[in-house]
Amino acid sequence: MALPPSLRTSVTPPELELIASEQLVEIIPLVAMERTSFISGAYGPLRPPTKCKLPIWMATNLKLKKKCHIVPPEWLSVEFLQERLSQETSKEEFSQLPFRFTEVAKVLLDIASDDIQNPDKIRYLLKDIREARQAKSRQGLQMIDHNELSLANLCSMEINEIRPFFVRAMGVLTQVNRDTATDRI
């Protein structure tokens, strides 16, 4: 399947999810397992009901086999996300969220929604936060200055979305500045 031109120059969302799957998440194992070595590191031992941290890729694999419960990160709660949504809609700057919050939330909500309190409400809050942040991104890009662009607290998915436009826009601004400087001489 051919990708649209805007995605050909960027990492795709599933690729970003794969990258985010290296992050550690806490689980409650339902089976005992000795320490296991992988290329990315050694994990375990798993001793129910003691919590331990594993990469998301391993935690989701165990979850799909019904061998653990995933403990959602603190930021994946209704209270935290409502607070962030309030900040997004009332302040000009982006609220501070984990760099890969979009990707991690999607993976955990897809695989372990039964381990998360109010998953539907969390989905709606994440959607609202995303829309508020996209509006801020669009507004910020309209006031783009070739000398400086400050969009603090942008997350990986958001950076990936604006990258194609930003690269083209900066190229045009650079060319305009060159032409203006040449006209002055």
TrEMBL record:
A Pfam family of this chain? Sld5
Any one biological process term the GO annotation gives:
chromosome segregation
Q: Which residue ranges does the record assign to the DNA replication complex GINS protein PSF2 N-terminal domain?
A: 12-71
| UniProt xrefs under SUPFAM superfamilies | GINS helical bundle-like, PriA/YqbF domain
Which keywords are on file for this protein? Chromosome partition, DNA replication, Nucleus
User: Which stretches are annotated as coiled coil?
Assistant: none
Give me the Gene Ontology terms describing cellular component.
GINS complex
> According to its UniProt record, where is this protein located?
Nucleus
Is Protein biosynthesis tagged as a keyword?
Answer: no
- Family note: Belongs to the GINS2/PSF2 family.
Q: Know the name of this protein?
A: DNA replication complex GINS protein PSF2
Q: Which organism is it from?
A: Dentipellis fragilis
